[in-house]
Amino acid sequence: DALDARTREMVDRRARLLGPAYRLFYANPVEFAHAEGVMMYDSDGNEYLDAYNNVVSVGHCHPHVNAAVKAQMDKLCTHTRYMQDGILDYAEMLLDTFEKDIAHVMFTCTGSEANDLALRMAKYHTGNEGIIVTSEAYHGNSELTSGFSPSMGENSRLGTWVRRVPAPDTYRVAAENMGEWLAAHVAEQIHDLQRRGQGLAAFVADSLFSSDGIFANDPELLTPVLKVVRDAGGIFVADEVQCGFARTGSDMWGYQRHRVVPEIVTMGKPMGNGYPVAGIAVQSHICEAFGHDMRYFNTFGGNTVAMAAARATLEVIQNENLMENARKTGAVLMEGLRDLAKADARIGDVRGTGLYMGVEMVKDRATRDPDSALALALVNEMRARRVLISATAANANVLKIRPQLCFSTDHADRFLTELKGALASVTT
Ligand code: PMP
């Protein structure tokens, strides 16, 4: 094969040691040695433009976050059973970003744990079992959360208490009112849950529908859906692991674009700019009984270093006006992508908000037949041009463009130049 000897050796060693469940990106996998801002460097010193990693959301190795983590690590790393100001100061900062009904925050280490805790609370509060998600949703890797993550693959084992609704696919669904359309699907599944005596505990959604194919175009969508959910006694869990922390460019949280207030918000990925920090924000009446009847302790969740990382990350988002930057750079990127689409019929649709874009590749604009092979070829061609992206949706035919929030308009220009070149050279 075309891999050089060192890459081949690492790929084999990895398979031997880590087993078959781990997947690598790219036909020609890449090893990174270090990174800074929006740039990554491979072991030969080549520079790559990172337009994908939303974990190090304020920029790779941000000095303010790294200094805070190092200082706290040198001073004290301990858990939430001792009193600390750090967790309280951060809790106040974080709660300030939410509507006033959302009054408590609790901390975990991963987004999966956050969704797991949210669902335990939802079930306890409602006394119901059922969970409704979109058809290609991803909400986590634990036994509970993988049970409502259909995007884990054809063999994913969905819970018997899980129902799926189609994503609000504005490219393929010609509904006059997308919110009413989705609400009708949700109502149908609620009816089925009730018929089987399970009832609805929660509707769980990522308001950008990331793994369904990135559907950001209809920000009024959730109001009618949540009416149906609440009428059935269920709650709304907003999974903000991907779309939170200013990603949309217009609001701190993705759900805020829809002008609704969730009972529980879950968050993770970008929260500590790479340090594992995640958590939930919750309305008091939802966690009331749960908190009285049960205890919650998470050894690493909310530890002093995690809180230092999270606080420093939020400070950077606010002090460097990264939401505004996401909006501004996102608009440039969107315009450039739309220009590319005008000149290339293989691009069926361009959508997104802030610094989260989807570019849908199709075999034919009339039939909208997904072109997975083309999307894959483009992702690999971009890697060859040293630009990092990926693909998403059921058919993996939607280019996923999700750079760090500090991506500048110059970076956007460089990105667009390379994508134009990639489109010209890939002829699948
Ligand atoms: N929810 C969403 C929307 C996610 O994208 C992810 C991670 N891809 C998770 C939850 C799970 O987060 P983690 O990998 O930190 O457990």
UniProtKB/TrEMBL annotation:
InterPro entries hit by this protein: Aminotrans_3, PyrdxlP-dep_Trfase, PyrdxlP-dep_Trfase_major, PyrdxlP-dep_Trfase_small
Alphabetically ordered keywords of this record: Aminotransferase, Pyridoxal phosphate, Transferase
Nucleotide-binding listed as a keyword: no
SUPFAM superfamilies attached to this UniProt entry: PLP-dependent transferases (SSF53383)
Organism: Roseovarius pelagicus
This protein's record includes keyword Membrane: no
Protein name: Aspartate aminotransferase family protein
Domain of life: Bacteria
GO molecular function: transaminase activity
Similarity remark: Belongs to the class-III pyridoxal-phosphate-dependent aminotransferase family.
